[in-house]
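Design a sequence for this backbone.
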């Protein structure tokens, strides 16, 4: 049996538990550039409680990730110089 990456394991858990999914991942766009995206998947259920549909949304969050990195780097530098 092959080992699952953490992203694949998370998706497997999502399918088996029936819980909504939210995760950040890097994807390659059509122009061959890799960018950060946030994936959100919400399940719709029928009257019996069975999963009837999946609704997904991908949001480009590259700018947010870069801003977060800028906040982390100066913070780390200030602790090493003290």
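Sequence:
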């Amino acid at each position: 049996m092959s080992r699952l990456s953490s992203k694949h394991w998370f998706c497997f858990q999502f399918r088996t538990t029936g819980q909504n999914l939210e995760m950040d991942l890097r994807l390659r766009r059509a122009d061959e550039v890799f960018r950060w995206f946030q994936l959100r998947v919400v399940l719709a259920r029928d009257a019996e409680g069975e999963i009837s549909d999946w609704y997904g949304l991908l949001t480009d969050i590259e700018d947010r990730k870069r801003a977060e990195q800028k906040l982390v780097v100066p913070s780390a530098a200030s602790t090493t110089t003290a």
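The mean pLDDT is 81.
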